[in-house]
Design brief:
Blueprint (H helix, E strand, L loop, with lengths): L1 E8 L7 H9 L8 E7 L2 E7 L13 E5 L15 E11 L2 H10 L9 H12 L10 E9 L4 E6 L8 E4 L3 E5 L2 H4 L14 H7 L12 E3 L4 E6 L6 E6 L15 H18 L7 E4 L4 H13 L5 E7 L8 H11 L2 E7 L3 H12 L8 H11 L5 E3 L4 H5 L3 H12 L4 H12 L10 H11 L4 H9 L4 H8 L1 H15 L7 H31 L3 E3 L5 H8 L7 E2 L2 E2 L1 H7 L5 H4 L10 H4 L5 H8 L2 H6 L4 H12 L6 H18 L1
Parallel strand pairs: 13-14, 13-16, 14-15, 16-17
Antiparallel strand pairs: 1-3, 1-9, 2-3, 4-5, 5-6, 6-7, 7-11, 8-9, 8-10, 11-12, 18-19
Length: 647
Amino acid sequence: MCGICGMVALKGQRPDENTLARMVRVLDHRGPDDSGYMIDGPCGLGNTRLAVIDPSPAGHQPMQVRHTPTNVPSRSGEPVPPSEAWIVYNGEVYNFNEVRAVLSAMRHHFTSHTDTETLLRSYIQFGASNFIKPYRGMFALAIWDVTNQRLLLVRDRLGEKPLYYTFTDEWMVFGSEIKAILEHPDVPRRFNADVLPHYLTYGYPPSPDTLFRGIHTLPPGHMLSLDLSRSQPIAEIIPYWQPPYPVSGEDPRTEENIATDLLAHLRWSVRLRLLSDVPLGAFLSGGLDSAAIVALMAQESTSTIKTFSIGFRNEPSFDETRYARKVQAKFVTEHHEFIVSPDVVELVDDLIWHHDQPFGDSSAIPTYLISKLARQHVTVALTGDGGDELFAGYERFRAARLASTYSHLPGVAQRAVTAALSRFSENTDYAGLVRNANRFVRAANLPLDEQYLSWIRYVASTWVVGLLGESQELAVREHYRQVFGSRPVGSEDDIVSRLLDVNIRSYLPEDLLVKVDRMSMAASLEARAPFLDHQLVQYAAAIPTSMKLRRGVKKYILKRALRGLLPDSIIDRKKHGFGVPVGAWFRTSLAKYARSVLLNPQAQARGVLNSEVVETMLETHIAGKADLGHSLWTLLTLELWLQRYFA
């Protein structure tokens, strides 16, 4: 795992070595084992390396390959000139040895045992359009094709590894993290206020935009080609893969056959991700997905598996460690359990620095803490990320089906439910029954896209209107209609297909995978997600949604596949997300700090948000009238980010 960065001059300049060195240095946490940079003509590439495969010096990046084809006559009869290219690469492709064998048969002579060299030789042999197709894994890479004077950026299919870029009048600059791009003197720091209402709503700035104007995310499954061989540089963004749309309807296969094949796909995906030349372990929350990964690791590995869990002192509703212990006992892992009382005030600045942008998902806190603690024992950790997105694991999938029934209840019955809920305050424990019931009732009669948007919001629409104005809320709704798409919905299964599709295209790459990448890389830890193997994703999409959410049972077919492998108490337990008691914190330890940050004179003078509404939100939450913990965390990280970059 690594950090990559670089620049390309658009008007014939030579990249500045000192600038490139600063860009590399700011990514040290992503690769503490080695670093380097190179300049060739108009292009400069940089890398910091976390050595996982072939940690020898032969894996140093940037890596260069010169290859002369054999038995290929030119038209003039002269020898064919060698192809020359450089690569910087972040990630792992787990099946590279298979491709390496093919390339060796085609007279490629390798100087390392790395997947890095295999990728670059694949590019030279098969070309930009085809070289990435056989690979399974996570990656963000840049190839400078010296022969053809072309830069190629490529990001993996699901978005596990990040890649950002920007164009100025004279430069194209890119990096694994925005902070590297900002080291270039020609890249201005400009606040992208147009994205602000979307950030408040989703908890992240939706791609391809960021909260820095002019800096963009390369979408998952896309390439960016910059051709300098012509009189004017030509840039093009090209899709090479997209998630398959989840099917609904009937399936001729038996349920048993589907479950058997599903387990085989997952087993093979886990086996591939055990490839490592350094110590390896797994995050174990005690939930279904992480338990499944640990179970298969235990069966596929010849050594004892190291597992890692985290809990919060004095917060039982957020603590899953007792379930993790059941899995540990079943598979006899070398288990490490951490019970913490984090100093959130001290942590939040670190989180913002590593994310480069404000980030509304407070589960970044436990992800950061467990990554730092796990790194003391291993360099690589497998995770259960992706299982909910593939197999309808979120409560909101079931809620969408229930809403179609609730919306047909008589008005008098609906009003009675609303009146009953109004008698209760919203507590801050994990389940938050009153909070969740209120959210469900308020949205149950809306169209599906607006209904779902209301459930995933970090800041409710009424607060967005107060903070920014009515027009900004309208912009959010229009944006989400585009994200959600326009496929017709004709059945309950179609509803689930739509929600699975929008989750894998938005929430997964822009929230969940951003969090996991930044927080694990902050600790120089590589996180691998077997559920996100693209061949497994394609197989899962072909399983009808009626087998994913059946009679109110979420992840039905996955549970069927794991029955007998995992204890029934793990398979049948209620889902518990990886969260923190942020709502309780804003009523206790964070209350004074949040007020001092959100209502400080600098924030009020800046005028980005309506300070009176911010104060009302604080008072409403502290008084117990509503649980606005996640909303306040979203505002807090925004203000601290503004102070860091635009003070």
